[in-house]
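[job 0412] stage=fold_complex status=start
inputs:
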Amino acid sequence: MHSTGLNTNQIMRQVIYALVLGVGASYVFFGWGVVLQIMLGVISVVVVESVFVRLRGRNVMDSISDGSAILTAILLAISIPAIAPWWVVVVGVAFAIIFGKQLYGGLGNNPFNPAMLGYAFLLISYPLQMTTWPVDFLSFNQAVEVVFNLLSFDGLSGATRLDDVKTSLSLGNELASLQVHSSSQAWINAGFLFGGIYLLARKIIFWHIPVAFILGIVLMASLISVFDSQQHLPIHNHLMLGGTMLGAFFIATDPVSASTTPRGRLIYGFLIGVLVVIIRAYGGYPDGVAFAVLLMNMTVPLIDYYTQPKAFGRS
Amino acid sequence: MARFAFKGGVHIPNPYPVRKSEIKQVPPPEQVVLLLQQRVGGEAKPCVKLGDRVLTGQIIAQTTGKFPTNVHASISGVISAIEKRPIPHPSGIDAMCMVIDSDGKDEWIEIEKCDKEFLNCTPDKVIQRIREAGIVGMGGAGFPTHAKITNAQGAHTLIINATECEPGIMCDDSLMQEYPREIIRGIEVLMHACGAKKVIVAIEDDKPEALNSLLMYNFNNRISIEQIPTKYTSGAEKLLIKALLGIEIQSGAYASDHGILCQNVGTVKAIYDAVIDNKPLISRVVTVTGSAVKSPRNYEARLGTSFAQVVESSEPNNQAHHIRMGGMMMGVDIPNAQYSICKITNCIFVNNKKPQPTVKECIRCSACAPVCPVNLLPQQLYWHSKSENIEKALEYNLTDCIECGCCNYVCPSNIPLSEYFSFAKALERKLTREEQRIDRSRERFEFREYRLERNKKERTEMMAAKKKALKEKMAKDKEKDQEQKDKIAQAMARVEQAKEDKNNA
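[job 0412] stage=fold_complex status=done
writing structure:
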């Protein structure tokens, strides 16, 4: 991406900077837990990556300094509830780096998005810890006490907004009776959206994936709402709740595991959007970004193969 | 302006622009080293001996074959060596060279003047003069010009490539400013030689002076001088044709298949010298540029002059240098300045040595794909070339890669992608050769098997036929025997009868 004049390390760093707005919004609503999770994630990723890179006989400094591992850790840490116990993020990061990246041969060789692989692993293994979010701003001391199990978090926590909706709907409540507008989540999504626009403006990511992703969500959500409007979320909620914007601009656009051809990126992004809505509406988990991304990661070789552009002189 | 843009390419500003258009003449050197290896036709065979005295412009070696090319002495003096010397080539191999020690006189050989105006010569005659002058593509490709013109006989359009193929090279720019009259005349010679009715001279829009000087001398309404946007790789023949005419030449086809002949503007000047001035190709314009020289500029030097002598005039600094022949994108890195200028040396980059940027892993960011002028997926090609999976690389159109290096230029991980592709192509050629060899030996083997089988069959058939014939013969013989016996018996009977008759009587 020389149009930006950046090298790989600088690109990774730019992506990390672009996360600041969304992370800031998270901090405003959930408090110090957010920061704590990121710190835990980054520390454990440095340790895990160093050990494994050394085991593979590669240069540790080169690997850490490219920033990709740290980016993975941050993406995972901000997907994890701010009050999850400390070992959740550590286990998740370790899984992401070892099974999601290093065993495939390190940066550039992993078929799956490591952060999402770690997230899916955590969600399946520790569903309780992974779906309990703080309901209020936590001070630094409160966050430390909760994250390190010094305090029971019962009084401080609740389910996520999407989880709430899902549970209530399954209990037979009508959508209209629920107050779905969750301003905190909308603000966080807006933060990631602006960060994503920054990346687009700097030409660090291509427009195809986020645009197709959002289009996929809009189309699929409208399709569902036509047939089943009482039971499902309206489109704007799909767009501004859960991991939509983080997924559209930061997760699905991970170049290593995404499709690489222009047409392929459109298909890839669009189908992730469609899958996200399907999983949210009919799946067993409240949010579907991680599973949608992982499922589409598997199809990338196929998409890439069939969407090759016509070479010059071969039309 | 070019009407039909092609996708991709990168805009790279000239890092060290030359301020003056003037072409500085480098005096004939004490010694020249002339390369005998030719682009087509292999190695030129010397037609003078060690110790012979040669004159400037004398033919000293020739290639034979379909497209013979000549090598001329670029100074007068004595042949002091015919031996292998290192040549500026990516492989770093040595090749046969001829060394002439100057006698300081620069005495020219008597060249047979063609007293006729070129328009009164047949095109064949003009092409023959181009051939005798030893002209090859001066843009860097080095393909024999006469062969290219012969192949494109009857072309309708002649394109003069004045785009200066790579950023940093400025020799064509200064040629156009210094010799506009000669270039227009040279174009007319070419038109006569190939029969083209229309000529387009393509100049990039960052060279307004060159454009103006050509416009000033162009009074031929069949020659149109057009500006095209400055973009790297617009100098590549097929892409230039696409940009000017909108014709996309298919993979594996040539411009001549569409009735188009493309020639570099430097070649046109050489054609002028050969046909109008009767001078063979013994010198060329070279740009000396780079971060280590104080005054980048253009020189006209005799072929075989050492790089060092030309570089000297551009006031290089005293640091360690990194020398590169050709442009900053596709040039060839060479270990030192002790190499000599050959027909395709359009530029010498003299850069300060600096540490190479570290190469990181490919993160599949695909920044390489939009800049690829031939619309490949360099990132996928890299993956397959690196793992030497040639079959897969061919599926991704490896052979269409023009090795322009745009992908290297934009790669955030500093991966030298085009080097991998050039390696993969070499591997592919080797595999194809091997496959052909295997095919041939298999064919030979199969034919031998077939032949043995056939012989065996023929023999059995022959034997059977013989046997049959023999049997028939034996049967016939038997019959004959029987007949004979019968006859004898009849005769005996007759004799017996006669005896009896006699006795009775």
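[job 0412] summary: The CA atoms of residues 175 and 230 of chain A lie 6 Å apart.
[job 0412] exit 0
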